[in-house]
Every structure is written in structure tokens, then in C-alpha cells.
Design goal:
single chain, mainly beta, 2 domains, about 45% strand, binds zinc ion
């Protein structure tokens, strides 16, 4: 048995005001679980992405989450759940005025190969990206795999990263 309080956990650097990994504190072995709070403009992810082997579910507790999907934008209201298959591209946002609180669950634990599409100003189109930590671990940086241009940078509790 494991028990933890979300409020006691450290924030991870994400494109969201609050993101707390529950996987490690609970010792989960077969699925991933993350707690999110998104301010207006925040996102669940760094990019429009898919996972090669992990399917993912989001349960919205409050606020309205809007997911970019292969079928266009989909709004998810409190009490609603959305599921993405392994290869489906998606990225969830808070496009509303109210903070979004949600849980994300993914199984199995590993993502497999991820494709992370972001607009590259140099390539002039959406390209796959690498995510890296800055040397001081204070930021996450996305760089275009085609040309190396930085396409986004996030700090703890920061909103969608702006190209510097
Ligand atoms: Zn590029």
C-alpha cells in the first residue's frame, strides 16, 4: 500500500502551472499517472505528439480542456474523460478562463518513441523536436530535429514556451 498527498509533491517543469508526477511516489509499475493544473493558455504537453506504445486518458475535474486532435479541436468538460490510442496525435490546452484541473493516466509506463511536432520558424512548418534540459536544469528546451532551431523554452510553472 502506498499513499501520498498531491499537495506535498514537487512540481515538474512543464507547459502547465502545476504538474505533479504520481507514478514514482505511488510506486506504480504498469501505468503512469500525473496531476495537472492549467492556467488559461497552459498546455498538458510540450508539443502536438503521440506515443508509440502508451495509450493515454485524461479525466477533467474542473475547467474546460481543449484537445488538438487529428479530428480537430475537442472540448472536455468536468466529469468527462478522453482517451487517445497509441499512435494518435494530440495536445491538450486550457483555452478557457478558468483553471483546468485534470488527471492523466497512461499505460504501459513507457512511452516508446514519441513524435513531438512544433512549428519551426526556420523550416516554416511543423517538425519533430528533441526536448532537453538546460545546463542548470532550470528549463526545458525544445529544438527542431531538422535544423536545430529552438522552438520553445519552459521554466517551472511557466506557460507555453516562447521562442526567444
Ligand atoms: Zn527547423
Amino acid at each position: 500500500m502506498e499513499k501520498t498527498a498531491v499537495a506535498d509533491l514537487d512540481d515538474s517543469i512543464q507547459a502547465a502551472a502545476v504538474m505533479r508526477h504520481l507514478t514514482e511516489p505511488l510506486g506504480l509499475t504498469d501505468f503512469a499517472m500525473n496531476y495537472y493544473e492549467l492556467e488559461p493558455g497552459d498546455s498538458f504537453a510540450f508539443a502536438y505528439h503521440n506515443h508509440a506504445v502508451q495509450e493515454e486518458v485524461f479525466y477533467v475535474i474542473s475547467g474546460i480542456a481543449t484537445f488538438e486532435t487529428e479530428d480537430g479541436p475537442v472540448e472536455v468538460a468536468p466529469g468527462e474523460v478522453i482517451r487517445f490510442d497509441r499512435t494518435e496525435f494530440q495536445r491538450g490546452w486550457n483555452r478557457g478562463d478558468e483553471r483546468v484541473v485534470a488527471l492523466a493516466l497512461g499505460a504501459p509506463l513507457e512511452y516508446g518513441k514519441q513524435v513531438k511536432l512544433r512549428h519551426c520558424p526556420n523550416c516554416g512548418e511543423k517538425t519533430d523536436n528533441d526536448l532537453d534540459r538546460a545546463d542548470d536544469e532550470a528549463a526545458v528546451i525544445a529544438c527542431c530535429k531538422e535544423c536545430g532551431t529552438e522552438t520553445g523554452r519552459w521554466y517551472r510553472g511557466s506557460m507555453e514556451g516562447e521562442v526567444p
